[in-house]
């Protein structure tokens, strides 16, 4: 009987430990086995103008960045041209705005976003397409 209870106890603690260690959440000070290298991947949402919208040359665009610690980690390019951005902290996210580069007209372009963090697996990339009129 003692062997069964001991076996069940070991199985319970092993299963519980497995669930905590592999949950992708940091354990913090609660001792869940997490480490400082676990993170939430940077992500980008709420793109304006919408994907595939037709816009005027040098139009403004905006998006929201989540899980980014510093605005300097965010890079934006349009047709491989770096774009200067402005960021506004809003709680635990950033509202990012920029302008399409001069000289782009009568073309479709991808607004490409990349966030580079200290931990590579936490980096994020996204983007959307706009059609730039004449």
Brief sketch in words of this structure:
The chain contains one helix and nine strands; from the N terminus they run αβββββββββ. It is mainly beta. Strand 4 and strand 5 form a beta hairpin.
Characterize the structure shown.
The protein contains one helix and nine strands. Residues 6-35 have low confidence and may be disordered. By secondary structure, the chain is mainly beta. Helix content is 15%, strand content 40%. It has two domains: 1-38; 43-132, Immunoglobulin-like (Sandwich), CATH 2.60.40. The strands form two sheets. The chain has a five-stranded mixed β-sheet, with no helix packed on it. A four-stranded antiparallel β-sheet has the order 1-3-7-6, with no helix packed on it.
Annotate the secondary structure layout.
Elements: H1 2-21, E1 43-48, E2 53-55, E3 60-66, E4 74-78, E5 81-82, E6 85-90, E7 93-99, E8 107-115, E9 124-132
Parallel strand pairs: 2-9
Antiparallel strand pairs: 1-3, 3-7, 4-5, 4-8, 6-7, 8-9
């Amino acid at each position: 009987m003692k062997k069964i209870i001991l076996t069940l106890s070991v199985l319970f603690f092993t299963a519980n430990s497995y669930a905590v260690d592999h949950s992708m959440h940091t354990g913090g000070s609660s001792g869940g086995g997490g480490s400082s290298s676990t993170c939430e991947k940077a992500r980008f949402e709420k793109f304006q103008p919408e994907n595939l919208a037709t816009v005027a040359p040098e139009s403004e665009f905006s998006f929201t960045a989540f899980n980014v610690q510093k605005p300097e980690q965010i890079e934006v390019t349009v047709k491989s041209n770096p774009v200067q951005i402005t960021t506004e902290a809003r709680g635990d996210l950033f509202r990012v705005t920029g302008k399409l580069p001069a000289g782009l007209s009568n073309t479709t372009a991808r607004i490409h976003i990349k966030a580079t963090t200290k931990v590579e697996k936490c980096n994020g990339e996204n983007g959307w397409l706009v059609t730039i009129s004449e």
